[in-house]
Amino acid sequence: MKENGKFIKRAMVIGGGIAGISASIDIGNAGYDVVLVEKLPSIGGRMLQLSETFPTLDCAQCTLTPKTVETGQHPHIKLLTYSEVDRVEGKAGNFTVKIRRKAAYVDWEKCTGCGLCQEKCPSKKPSEFDRGMGMGKAIYTLSPQAVPNKPVINPSNCRYFLEKKCRVCEKVCPVGAIDYEQQDRFVEERVGAIITAVGIDLIPKETFGEYGYGTIPDVIDGLAFERLNSASGPTTGAIRRPSDGKVPKEVVFIQCTGSRDPERYMPYCSRVCCMYTAKHARLYKHKVHDGQAYIFYMDIRSTGKGYEEFIQQGMEEEGILYLRGRVSRIFRDDGRVVVWGVDTLTGKKVEISADMVVLATAIIPQGGTKGLAQKLGINTDEYGFFTEAERKLRPVETNVEGIYLAGCAQGPKDIADAVAHANGAASKVQGLFAKH
Amino acid sequence: MGSIMDYLYFPGCTLYTKAKNLDQTARNCSLLLGFELKELPNWTCCGATFPLATDNIMALLPPSRILARARQEGTTLTTLCAICFNVIKRTNRLIQNDGEKREKINNFIEMNYQGDLRVLHYLEILKQEIGFPQIKERVRKPLAGLKAAAYYGCMLLRPFDEMGFDDKERPTLFEEFLEAMGAEPVDFPYKIECCGSFQSVGSPEVATECGYKILGSAIKNGAEVVVSTCPMCTFNIDHKQSDIKQKYLDFKSIPVLYFTQLLGMAMGLDYQTLGFEQNFVDPLPLLKEKGFI
Hints:
The complex is a heterodimer of chains A (436) and B (293). By secondary structure, chain A is of the alpha/beta class. Chain A has helices at residues 18-29, 60-73, 116-120, 159-163, 168-172, 222-229, 273-287, 307-317, 369-376, 415-435; strands at residues 10-14, 33-37, 52-53, 58-59, 77-80, 83-91, 94-101, 124-126, 135-137, 139-140, 152-153, 185-191, 193-196, 200-202, 219-221, 250-257, 292-297, 321-324, 327-333, 336-343, 348-354, 356-361, 363-365, 403-405. A 5-stranded parallel sheet of chain A has the order 5-2-1-13-24. In chain A, strands 15-22-16-17-18 form a 5-stranded parallel sheet. A 3-stranded antiparallel sheet of chain A has the order 6-7-12. In chain A, a hairpin with a 2-residue loop joins strand 19 (327-333) and strand 20 (336-343). In chain A, helix 1 (18-29) runs parallel beside helix 10 (415-435). The mean pLDDT of chain A is 96. Chain B has helices at 20-33, 61-73, 82-97, 99-109, 122-130, 132-138, 160-163, 173-180, 199-202, 204-220, 231-239, 241-247, 259-266, 284-289, and strands at 5-10, 35-39, 76-79, 118-121, 147-151, 184-186, 225-228, 256-258. Chain B is α/β, with parallel strands linked by helices and 293 residues long. The model of chain B has no long low-confidence stretch (mean pLDDT 93). In chain B, strand 1 (5-10), helix 1 and strand 2 (35-39) form a beta-alpha-beta unit. The A-B interface holds A 208-210, 212-213, 329, 331-334, 338 and B 167-170, 189, 217, 220.
């Protein structure tokens, strides 16, 4: 029991992806208050970037948006977006968390989310959210259905911050919400339990010298393909290659790029690439009927429910060509992307002159994961993923009482597993609260 | 650049025969750059291939003996031939890191060598010890407008962990060298691919195909000349151009020069001393057209 005898039955969830959202809703539905902290301007996480999801081929946003909206409107959930955890003190039942609320340069109290500022903003730069596949404005929201639907200004793209002129958004804002003088500020929240549900990144394609160090425009990563294929993406879902906007007729997908490669990159399996690559190839075939999709793979790991059937359908009914082998080099030749690989089943070298290549790059923890672990006093493994209390029997607990794990920050997971993990973390929090 | 420095130099067999022009031009260029290649006394063949079988001590003895003798003369050993460089550098690394092999080798050659020699390729000396900016200052006749494809081949670079020569997948050292001489480096995808190596003896068609692809790719990317560091590569992509032409009717020949020949020309050496008569495809028409000679 705490010194003052009072155990705070209020939880914090760090990270507003599908895991963090799921955990927050669970805890909120149990009647406990939740503070959800998200570093981006709105919640949704990686899933918001996806086009469709395996194995059902549901539209990701269509399944996610009801959840984000529910989170935004939930009477027990307090959203702190565009915010990062700065310091954590205390112990289970009585944590004090100092949170940095980043300057949005927009007064969200005044802002009505009309979107006029984004429409008129003259600054266009390659969008990080769209993985460079499209342009984004300096004042932006992550999606038209963003929760909360409030924009932020990115000072490194904004003409006013860079050149001290422009101020277009300020002029057009009907409620005077733009505030260029806004500063980061700090708030403190007191909670009894914390769930960390920070997510993942992909190992940058610039890492791979054999694949051109990211210099070949038509070599993209899996998330970039998601954006290309997304109805809300930069091409409104048309598959067009980045270099010249042409519809690619031959696309090579390379699994295990940087995964299961202990000598050079990551030794572990990223767990989702077999499935999302099959999904990519199938979605590509749905849109480009006369196109050919090739998939280089090491093994097919399709262990989830309905997953193997999903792969088989792609092979047998949609004409996707699976080649078991690795790719040694990719280079540009006359506007095409030449892929040198090997088909180890026939023992032959394979050369494919493709229009576009999609790399299923390894999943890695987000940059700030280690720093957050230090603030929380929990452990990470050698790759930076959070370490659970026990590998088999305590997968959501940490070595600190009152701090739990959810989703991919503990290790690569698909959506179904991340949600299940989050449900587990949420039930641990409820158990802890019920006990006191 | 100050006083004359000496670098111990292991020429290797081909540098005395087929690749005399590589040897001569390298020695002459060194003098202009303020250092001397001091030939290792009593050198022998390097062995020509690094033994891949782990218990094959015998093939390690020639390069080990070369290293042990060189250590008695100095601390840095340089080579020009990429194959010699590969064999000697890898043997040196093995002696450094594998105590058991080191002892066995030392017992065989009856010498005591601990692996404490620096093995540098001539290009590395130019970059690390002399510096490309300094070479640029020495250039009398910049090779302006010469579109040159730097062909690394594989021996300088592979295996990456052992050779440690520049970036493993996209080296640029050779291109930087060409830029220092005022030439325009041409990037081409085959620059680190194998030339076919000794296949030119047993299965010449394999080497011919390699040569066709390498040169074809360089030409397609705008190269007027291909620049090589290696006598083996040069044999396959220069001397074998007649075979390539016979097999591939669309093939157009292209001069292949040693990097030291270009260096000598840029530093103002008389072209008649650069050994162009040993190049199979005559580079003189191109060099005249470009106004370099």
